[in-house]
Amino acid sequence: MQQGSHYLVTGASRGIGLAIARAIVDAGGEVTGLSRTAGELEGVASYHFVECDFSRIGEAAEKLKALRKRIAPLDGLILNAGFGRFGMLEEFSAAQIRELIDVNLISQILVAREFLPQMKRRKAGDIVIIGSEAALKGGQKGSIYCASKFALRGFAQSLREECAAAGVRVTLVNPGMVQSEFFSDQNFRPSSQPGCHLLPQDVARTVMFVLDTRPGVDFDEIDLTPQKRVIERGRGGSQVL
Ligand code: NAP
Question: Across-strand partners of 223?
């Protein structure tokens, strides 16, 4: 990554997106962060917060169009914003299904659609998509979340083929369980014991590795997981998977 490079990061207010945005800023880059809340980087000179609620898809599309017209050319996109909702399919309302797909999938596609043409014109740039281990394997109570992440994976594979001739690199990063607020509304979380969870910084380091690699080298997909799969449920007790 070159000094002064400018990246758009969705979901940069906390967790994985915040760690990626911070790593870019620390390396001398500039970040435009899109999320509903500003987060910890607010006030940092090279961080520009744009309030955007990806569950309001129509408004988000308009905001992206306006942003594209006033922002300097970008060196890359980090499509990270997302949330988890888990349960048996019949426990989801239609509105809940819509919201999850809109935030995790459609909005990220719209961001790419808006900013890709200028990257193709410049014949350079990175699009890094934060998928999940849920993009690789379905599981009980994960139907909607997995559907959103499997779809992101197909999107990434197709986009990679579409963009190669234009010199734009598309990388899918699939983390296993990361210690973040992602789990604050869930009745499970990765164990806090060593080796049982990733940290947001682990994912950020992987993304920086991609951004620091010379143009023309493709990674396709990078999977990273904690060494041990131990889940804590409810208020206590852990289960080795
Ligand atoms: P997190 O700490 O909850 O952060 C989620 C980020 O997404 C926040 O910045 C949040 O910002 C943003 N976001 C959520 N809903 C949004 C909305 N409606 N509009 C705009 N922004 C929204 O979770 P995380 O662990 O960092 O997750 C980041 C990504 O990694 C997600 O795509 C998730 O699926 C993926 N992932 C997570 C794990 C894990 O175990 N944690 C594993 C694999 C993949 P605001 O709330 O400020 O809007």
Answer: 174
Token pair, residue 165, equals 């001739």
CA of 165 to the centre of ligand 1 (A): 31
pLDDT at 235 over 60: no
Q: Is the pLDDT of residue 241 over 60?
A: no
Q: Is 130 in the pocket of ligand 1 (CB under 6 A)?
A: yes
- Domains of the chain are 6-240 (3.40.50.720)
Long-range contacts of 52-61 (CB under 8 A, 24+ apart): 52/10, 54/10, 54/81, 54/102, 54/103, 54/107, 54/108, 55/99, 55/102, 55/103, 57/102, 57/106, 57/107, 57/110, 60/107, 60/110, 61/110
| Secondary structure element (H or E) that encloses residue 15, with its range | helix 15-26
Whether the predicted pLDDT of 240 surpasses 60: no
Pick from 75, 73, 68: nearest CA to 124: 75
202 lines ligand 1 (CB under 6 A): no
Q: Please answer whether residues 206 and 224 qualify as being in contact, where contact means their C-beta atoms are separated by less than 8 angstroms.
A: yes
Catalytic residues: 145
Please give the pLDDT value at position 17.
98
Q: Among 12, 20, 6, 31, which residue's Cα sits nearest to residue 125?
A: 6
| Mutation pick for ligand 1 pocket among 8, 10, 14, 77 (CB with most ligand atoms within 8 Å) | 14
Question: 236 pLDDT exceeds 60?
Answer: no
